[in-house]
Design brief:
mainly alpha; 0% strand
Length: 286
């Protein structure tokens, strides 16, 4: 009887292991196929002229330099706003807030906010930033909308990172005479920089891939501006440009080229942030 039960358990273990292997292979194959297909379709269409010029409706020339610059502008603007707010809110909730019920309510609200579809953020951003605050359709309105969208991500990842810092670190800093803010600034934050950078990666990925909210708030102009002047004007990011070239104009070669650029850009950003994470880990280990 015991032998039969053992055999059944063994068969069950083999079946579950086989299903997990099949699921892993299917997932990896799907990712490799998607990346390979986009790169195969897009890389041959990437030229220096495409990357370094702006489109001309007179000559019919296609260029995505304004879209690249607008994407970088909106990433910089959104990160400069969301990082201080999100990290500051997480520090307050984890280190200063005393009322646990209020903390739980704020955390629940943040989780609810992260589940709202992006097109609703775009509608609210258009009504509030573009119309009520009279920002018009601009990159700044789009950046502020993205700040609201990504605030829960930065806040929650930073909170979880703060929780991983051992309490003994805090007690040791207090024992050496450090104040609360000095302890947080010199002990806690350097110990959880990895989690903050992880939230930053997720934030950048969502900013790069967002299109629905930006269609309502940032617009679709393909004009080159400086950073400050560009934030005050309408502009199309790479994802918005991809939508228009594929859906409105039927330029699928250009759309695949933009998709390949987005993949390469996301890969480079991930590699850079991963290197920074390893750098801080080595510094902390010394």
């Amino acid at each position: 009887m015991n032998q039969k039960i053992a055999n059944k358990r063994l068969i069950y273990v083999y079946i579950v292991r086989a299903l997990m292997i099949i699921s892993t292979l299917f997932t990896c194959s799907l990712v490799v196929f998607l990346i390979g297909y986009v790169l195969m379709k897009g890389l041959p269409n990437i030229t220096w002229e495409l990357l370094s010029t702006e489109p001309s409706y007179i000559t019919g020339k296609i260029g995505i330099l304004p879209d690249i610059l607008n994407t970088l502008y909106i990433i910089i603007a959104a990160l400069c706003l969301v990082l201080p707010i999100g990290v500051g809110a997480a520090i307050y909730l984890s280190e200063y807030a005393k009322n646990k019920k209020i903390v739980a309510m704020i955390e629940y609200a943040a989780e609810t906010l992260s589940g709202i579809p992006s097109i609703i953020f775009g509608l609210v951003g258009m009504l509030f930033f573009c119309q009520f605050l009279d920002m018009k359709t601009s990159l700044l309105a789009g950046a502020l909308t993205l700040v609201i969208m990504n605030l829960p991500t930065i806040m929650r990842t930073t909170q979880e990172s703060l929780k991983t810092v051992p309490q003994s670190y805090r007690e040791g800093a207090f024992g050496l005479g450090a104040g609360k803010w000095r302890m947080i600034r010199t002990v806690v934050l350097p110990s959880c920089i990895d989690g903050i950078l992880t939230g930053c990666i997720l934030c950048i990925g969502r900013i790069i891939g967002e299109s629905a909210a930006l269609l309502f708030t940032a617009g679709s102009a393909h004009v080159i501006h400086g950073f400050l002047s560009g934030l005050m004007n309408s502009g199309s990011t790479l994802t918005v440009a991809l939508y228009f070239y594929a859906k409105e104009n039927g330029e699928f070669e250009i759309a695949f080229a933009i998709a390949a650029i987005l993949m390469i850009l996301a890969f480079v950003i991930n590699i850079g942030v991963t290197w920074i994470q390893h750098y801080y880990k080595k510094r902390r280990a010394l």
